[in-house]
Amino acid sequence: MLRKGSEMQKKDKEVLLDLDYEGSIKSYGSLQNGSFSAPKSFLDASGDMVDRDSIQIQSKDDINLQMGNYFRDGRTKIDFVLVWETSSQESRQEKERTTNEEGEASTNVELNRPEPKKTRPVQWRERFVRNLESAGLLTEKEETTNESRTIHFLKLNVPWEVMVFYAEELSFRAPLQAQPYLDFNYSAHLLRRLCIPNIMLEPVPNRPLDYYTCAFRKSKMENFLGSHDRENFFTNTQRHRVAYEILTRTVYGKRKNAQVGVDRLLNEGVYTAAFPLHEGYYKLPTYGVHPEELNRRQILYQYWARWRNWHKYQPLDHIREYFGEKIAFYFAWLGFYTTWLLPAALVGTLVFVSGLISMNTDTAAKEICNSGGTYLMCPLCNTCKAWNVSDICTMAKIGYLFDHAGTVFFSIFMSFWAISFLEYWKRKMVTLAHHWDCMEFHEEEERPRPEFAAMATMMEPNPVTGVKEPYFPKRTQLSRMLTGSMVIIIMLCVVMIFLVTVVMCRGIITVMMFHTRNHLLQIEAGTIANILSSIVNLCLILLMGRIYTALAEQLTKWEMPRTQTQYENAFIFKVFIFQFVNFYSSPFYVAFFKGRFVGYPNNYGTLFGMRNEDCGPGGCLIELAQQLFIIMVGKQFINNVQEFVIPKVRVWLQKRGVYKVIGAKETVEIHRWEEDYQLVKSEGLFEEYLEMVLQFGFITIFVAACPLAPLFALLNNWVEIRLDAHKFVCEYQRPVAERAQNIGVWLNILEILSHMSVTANAFLIAFTADFLPRLLYKYKFDNELHGYMNFTLAYAPLNYTDYPLCRYKDFRDNNGNYTLFYWELLAIRLGFIIAFEHVVFFVLRAIEWVIPDVPESLEVKIKRERYLAKQALAENHEVLFQGVTAATLGTSGPVNRPSLRTNVT
């Protein structure tokens, strides 16, 4: 039985922190001789102690209904499961060793003996389990075995008193008053007002109730709704969090060696898995069942994870209830982002279609196609021949698709879109954070990471808690961070080397195409070279990304960040910096550098003896569009195939290994813990966020070159949501529910990308697109652009003897000097960039001022909730309420206080 009050708290903390604690706290259940020994008494549903012998045995059918997530008694919930595997011989030796233990005294002596390497994992497990039981957890063990292998399952339960203690310590939120469901779906509200049928709307059964809440206090238990129902007062995700909290705090070895927590035991291979259980099987039963009778996992599968739901809203409240706020925020952001891609994709498609319709009306393209042999162009390489500009008629028309006034409008539109999207997401994020009771969540006493605890060389008191914790010198940590930064710079230089290699490869392919003497290959040499080099570049990008992610993980561990938050932020920063350069370096080169340092006949710029690249016949924007299509769409396709195939292969391999022990599924009943053990461990959300953030950069920074990019992103995200949902519901072990109030550091990265997109689009329109030169020519010479093609072509200098009077594209005179038109155009370009940025950022500030991060209706809710919390937690709330009411009514004397509770109908 647990001790009450402060004595219980003191002893529990000693168990969690003291290595050699072997107190006499009576366990709720223990492991003896490898099997579960039931305690002499249990807490019943009302919290009273009931003797084991007096418990009425349930019918077999009733127990079987609950066996999936309950102990063998059919009443005690399984909150967590620890799994380890041994050979059958090792299992028998472990049982014999446990049987021969000679009591507490001999055990204490044994604790101080040197541990043989082979028996160390066994001893660590035994000590860990003893300390878990001393901390108040109930335990029950199951074994699945065959002739050569045994899988051990240790089921854990957090009793009521332990839940109450940790609920207060971890600042859980408890319900004060029920409130009506609020409509956070603005698109559904808009469609309803416009009387448009909403095919995305689908009622989901068993929607979690919404409450006014406040921080849990044991002393104010009677003020909380449902406090009489101890079985269901705390949600399953809260129970999982408490169980995991105890598991991560409990020692299993020597404190000075930082042998603490289940995470390090998993890293050491002492346990092979640790997870909370899914709530039943995800597939629907073969017999008919009412939707309200489905378990939470089945509801998520039926109304969210199935492919037929691609056009339905996500049940975010159900996701949060089952997986926790951190995962729910990811899917909320992904759904919000995908919804906002709809107008961007629609506008981009209209811009592309308008360009397609008006492609044959472009005056400059007509002049190219009708020129015949009028314009003899200078050779594109040192060994190439001259060519006629009419040869690129088709490419000139296609280039107009990506370089016309509509694409300029779309670039401006996407700059405003990116900024508005983030501002409205902040409002949505705050609304969800309050709705999910995590608006004021922050980790005040975050523990050191297990790896940090294992490798730290010193122990120092924690400035917050005063408890001695592993410590790593700041100076040494700083020197490691500087060394890691040098490694990052070296890796970025490697990326630049690969970029130069791709550029040279493109030049070599172009020369090879010209030497084929095939007229079609010679005309399309630049396009073919660009496509092939983009495919090679994509392969290098994916290869370097895998290598660097593994390197960044090792570097981050070596830098010794103390907490998991510091580790994740450092790791995300390293990987994003590298992936930003890795993915965007080639598009940046094509957009802003290619064709800028070509020179002119007799004065060409060179790199390693090869002439610098010039833009292709259709211009640099069409080449940039090809790069974006191959890199962005190719990466999305490869990632989706990996996300679809790899989890299924891993699950199949895991099931194959477990089936060898438990037998064929048709002949042996598989328990819930065995079923979940066959699933693969959740890999977290890092890869998911990184993929979407890189996509966001592609569709905002380079959108001027590819109006269809938002459409491709939209199609990918529809698939991505269902792939991720299916993985979490069907293929992953249930992750521990983590609290969060936003999407973390990813929001800062998105803001950086959105601001960068404004500058990038301004430079693309000014220097890469043909919009401003055409605009200036219209103003100075001809409003219909007649003669524009001839005006943009310069004559080769007089001393160029290979092909006298050949033409090349530039604003130069016969001596190779820039013309007055070039300098006028340069001034206009720089003025456009300054004006564009100032207008967009001014509108950004106006949007921030007009659209507050916290909606007005939410502010009222927050004030109401704080008022109720103040009443519920006041030490003398009766007197407080009476005084306030008397002052309000202008009377004195006692006043009846209305109940804080409301009936939920």
From TrEMBL:
<dbReference type="GO" id="GO:0005254">
    <property type="term" value="F:chloride channel activity"/>
</dbReference>
<keyword id="KW-0812">Transmembrane</keyword>
<comment type="similarity">
    <text>Belongs to the anoctamin family.</text>
</comment>
<keyword id="KW-1133">Transmembrane helix</keyword>
<keyword id="KW-0325">Glycoprotein</keyword>
<dbReference type="InterPro" id="IPR032394">
    <property type="entry name" value="Anoct_dimer"/>
</dbReference>
<dbReference type="Pfam" id="PF04547">
    <property type="entry name" value="Anoctamin"/>
</dbReference>
<feature type="domain" description="Anoctamin transmembrane">
    <location>
        <begin position="319"/>
        <end position="865"/>
    </location>
</feature>
<keyword id="KW-0472">Membrane</keyword>
<feature type="compositionally biased region" description="Basic and acidic residues">
    <location>
        <begin position="91"/>
        <end position="100"/>
    </location>
</feature>
<feature type="domain" description="Anoctamin dimerisation">
    <location>
        <begin position="70"/>
        <end position="316"/>
    </location>
</feature>
<keyword id="KW-1003">Cell membrane</keyword>
<feature type="transmembrane region" description="Helical">
    <location>
        <begin position="692"/>
        <end position="715"/>
    </location>
</feature>
<dbReference type="InterPro" id="IPR007632">
    <property type="entry name" value="Anoctamin"/>
</dbReference>
<feature type="transmembrane region" description="Helical">
    <location>
        <begin position="327"/>
        <end position="353"/>
    </location>
</feature>
<dbReference type="Pfam" id="PF16178">
    <property type="entry name" value="Anoct_dimer"/>
</dbReference>
<feature type="region of interest" description="Disordered">
    <location>
        <begin position="89"/>
        <end position="117"/>
    </location>
</feature>
<dbReference type="GO" id="GO:0046983">
    <property type="term" value="F:protein dimerization activity"/>
</dbReference>
<feature type="transmembrane region" description="Helical">
    <location>
        <begin position="405"/>
        <end position="425"/>
    </location>
</feature>
<protein>
    <recommendedName>
        <fullName>Anoctamin</fullName>
    </recommendedName>
</protein>
<feature type="transmembrane region" description="Helical">
    <location>
        <begin position="820"/>
        <end position="844"/>
    </location>
</feature>
<dbReference type="InterPro" id="IPR049452">
    <property type="entry name" value="Anoctamin_TM"/>
</dbReference>
<dbReference type="GO" id="GO:0005886">
    <property type="term" value="C:plasma membrane"/>
</dbReference>
<feature type="transmembrane region" description="Helical">
    <location>
        <begin position="529"/>
        <end position="551"/>
    </location>
</feature>
<feature type="transmembrane region" description="Helical">
    <location>
        <begin position="571"/>
        <end position="592"/>
    </location>
</feature>
<feature type="transmembrane region" description="Helical">
    <location>
        <begin position="743"/>
        <end position="767"/>
    </location>
</feature>
<feature type="transmembrane region" description="Helical">
    <location>
        <begin position="482"/>
        <end position="509"/>
    </location>
</feature>
